[in-house]
Amino acid sequence: MIYFDNSATTKPYPEVIESFAKVAGEYFGNPSSLHGLGASAERLLQKARKQIADLLHTTPSEIVFTSGGTEGNNLAIKGAVHAAAKNGNHIITTEMEHASVLETCRSLEQEGFEVTYLPVTKDGSIVLSDLIHAIREDTILVSIMHVNNEIGSIQPIEEIGRYLADFPKIMFHVDHVQGIGKVPLDFNKCHIDLCTMSGHKFHGLKGTGILYVRSHVKLSPLFTGGNQESKFRSGTENVAGIVAMAKALRMTLNKQNQASDVAEIRDYLMSELKKIEGVKINSPESGAPHIVNFSIPGIKSEVFIHALEESGIFASTTSACSSKNKAISETVLAMFHDLSRAESVIRISTSYENNLEEAKAVIQAVIEKMAKLQKVMR
Amino acid sequence: MEFDHIIIRYGELSTKKRNRKSFVDKMKSHIRWAIKDLKHAKVTSSRDRMYVLLNGEDHLEVIQRIKGVYGIQSLSPALKIGRDIEEVKTAALYYFEQLSKRPETFKITTRRSDKDYPYDTNEMNHLIGGHLLINNDGHLKVDVKNPDFNLRIEIRREAVYLTGEIIEGAGGLPFGSSGKAMLMLSGGIDSPVAGFLSMKRGLEVECIHFYSPPFTSERSKQKVIDLAHKLAEVNGTIKLHIVPFTDIQVLIQKQIPENYTMTSTRRLMLRIADAIREKNEGMAIITGESLGQVASQTLESMFAINEVTNTPILRPLITVDKTEIIAMAREMETLEISNQPFEDCCTVFTPASPKTKPRREKVNYYEGFVDFEPMIEKAVQDTETLRISGEKQDNVDETIEDLF
Ligand SMILES: Cc1ncc(COP(=O)(O)O)c(C=O)c1O
C-alpha cells in the first residue's frame, strides 16, 4: 500500500497509539476530580499542555484543546466575532479556505455579519494590497489559512500579520491545520492572535486539536458548562487523546527538523509530472513540501482515484470533506477559471513516512493508468 | 543576514563598585544558565557591558530567554557587517524591518573610529537615512531631537556595527548578591510573587511550606512544588523545605479558642520558619502579606504574630493591591498554578470569624497552657528538604515520561 493522502489524515504513529492506550486504560480519572486518580490525570494534562506550548513557543495558558480543526476554526471565528461584536461586524477571509472556515463565515453572514472573500491568484495566494483595500473601520477579524489543503500554496502570513499589527481592533486567525509540522510559522513574529491545528493531520488521533489563543484575546465559547480550558471550551478533557497528540507533535517536529525527504519527494513528483503530456500542475512551485496537486483534463478525478487504488495507491480528489458531495475543486476553479481542469483534480499528499521509491511507483502508475483510461474515454 | 551579538547593559551594578566583580560573574553565570541549550551562543564581558555572541543562534530566542535575568537593565541586538556601503544600506534596512515595533520617526547616529572610511559621519547619516526613507514610502519621518528609533552605526577598521533597538531588561540586582532569606510559600497567588520580587532585589531564596495531611492533599503539595519549580527557573535550582504541620495544627484546634486559632497558627509557623532559617543561615523571612487583604494581614494581626521573632520579616507586597499582584503573577506564569483549587492548610482551618484585631496578651495567655517547643523542634527535625530544579524539562515523573 502506498498512502499518499496525508492531507486528508495521517496514520497515527505506533508510539502515539501506545500512549493513548496506556493513558485511556490507566489514567482514566477526571482531571477535575479531587482524588489521586484525578490528580494524575490532571498532571498528564498539564504536562501535555506544557510540552505543546514549548514546542510552539507559546505559554501553556495560550493552549486550548479542542476536538480538531473544524472545532478550532469555529471557536476561533465565531468566538472572536461574537466577543468583539460591539467593535464592528466585518470579517475578511479568502476564497480558498477550508469548508470549516468558509461555511462558518457564511453562517455568520446569516446572523448579520458582513464578510469579504479575498480572491486568489494563479499561484493560489492572496495579494496583500487586496487585503489592505478590504480593511474597513468596522473590521474585527481576518482569517487566512497558512497552507492550503488542496494545492499546498502558502499565504504570506508574516507580511499580513505585520500589516495587521497596526490595527489592534482586528483579530488575526490562521488555519494552520495543513502547515503544522511542514511549514514553520512563528506565531509571535506573525502577530497571530488565534491559530488552529488538528491532531490527526500530524500522526495524532482524530478528535484532538489545538487552538492557540494569544493571552488577552477574548473569545465567547461555543460550549458552556464546567468551564474547562480556561472557560473557552467546557467538557471533560480527552486526556488520552491530548497526551497522544503532545507526543505526535514532538515526533513530527523532530522529523521536520531533521532535513527530511519530503521536499525531495515533492521536487521529484513535480518534475516528473510536468514531463507527462496531458498533465497540468495546479500546485505552485513555491508551495508546501507535502502537497502536489495536478489535473488530467478529460479524466474525471473520481475515475482516476479508483484507477490508482487498483495499484494500491491512495490519493484523493479535492479536500476529503468536499470530495464526497462535489465533483469539482472550487479552489482550482477559482485559480484557473477552467472547468475541465477543476473536475479532474488529483491531490497527492505525503508525510515523513513516505519515501522516494513510493513516489517513483506513483509516477509509473500515473503514466500507465493515463494511457489505459485515455483509450477508453475517447 | 543574521544578528551577530546582543549587547547587555547593567543598571544599578555600576554604582556598587566594591562587589562589582562578583556581581558581574553571578550575572554572567545566570545568563549562561538561561541559554545553556543554545550551544553556539557565547557570553563575554567588557568593562561595563556584557555580550552574547550568537554564532548563528536565533537572536529573538536569546533575547526572550535573557530578558528576565535580574540585573540586566537593557538589551540591544547588533549586526556586524563588511565595510561596503551597499552592505551597510542593506543591513540598515534589515535592522529596521526586524524591529519589534514599527517606528514613525527615526534618526541615524554614525560614529567613525576609522577616519579613513570614504564617507564622513554626515554623509553616512544622509546616505543611510535616505535609503530607509525611500524604502518606507511616506510612512517614516526623520526626527533628530526625539526619534522613536535611533539607528547607531559604528565604523571600525575591521567591520561596521549596527545597533539601536533598546529592549528593556528585568532590572534589579543579580540573584544572590544580597544574601539569603526564607520565603513562606503557601500555594496562593501572593507568596510566589513576593519570592520573585525578592530574588529580583538580589536575594537568594529558600522556600518553606507547611504540609498538613490529610487536611491538605497531595495535590496541594504538588502545587507548591510546581510553584517552587517556577521560582527555580530564575537561577536553576531552589530549596523547598516541607514542614509536617498536622500535629501542631490539631493541637491548636484543641487548645486555642476558635477566633484565635488563625493567629496562633501563624505565630507557630513563624517560629518554625525562623528555626529553619537559623539552621540554613538565612537572615530574613519573606512573606506574601499585603496589608488588610485577609484577617491575618491587618496591622493588629501582624503586631500579634510578629511578636515571636525579631528576625527581619520582608513583605515585598505589603502596599500592593490584589489586582496588581494578580497581574504580576500572570506575568511570572505562577497565576495558573496558584489558581488550581486545592486547599492549603490555611484555608481548611480558617475559622468562620477570625479575629481581625487579635491582642498579644490574649494569644500569649491561650498559648501558655501548652508547651509547643518540643513540637516545634520535632517539626523542624522532620522537615523534608527538596532541591527543585529549574530545568524546563521536569523529569520528576519518570513513570509518565515515555507517554510523551
Ligand atoms: C486546512 C484545513 N482546515 C481545517 C480542517 C479540518 O480539520 P478536522 O478534520 O480536524 O476537523 C482541515 C482538514 O480537512 C484542513 O485541511
Automatic annotation (TrEMBL), chain A:
Residues 2-361 form the Aminotransferase class V domain. Keywords: Coiled coil, Iron, Iron-sulfur, Metal-binding, Pyridoxal phosphate. It comes from the Bacteria. Its cofactor is pyridoxal 5'-phosphate. The keyword Ribosomal protein does not apply. Residues 349-376 form a coiled coil. The keyword Coiled coil applies. One of its GO terms (molecular function) is iron-sulfur cluster binding. Belongs to the class-V pyridoxal-phosphate-dependent aminotransferase family. NifS/IscS subfamily. This is Cysteine desulfurase.
Automatic annotation (TrEMBL), chain B:
It is found in: Cytoplasm. Gene3D superfamilies: 3.30.2130.30, HUPs (3.40.50.620). SUPFAM superfamilies: Adenine nucleotide alpha hydrolases-like (SSF52402), THUMP domain-like (SSF143437). Residues 60-166 form the THUMP domain. Pathway: Cofactor biosynthesis; thiamine diphosphate biosynthesis. Its EC number is 2.8.1.4. One of its GO terms (biological process) is thiazole biosynthetic process. GO terms for molecular function: ATP binding; CCA tRNA nucleotidyltransferase activity; tRNA binding; tRNA-uracil-4 sulfurtransferase activity. HAMAP family: ThiI. Belongs to the ThiI family. This is Probable tRNA sulfurtransferase. It comes from Peribacillus psychrosaccharolyticus. The gene is thiI.
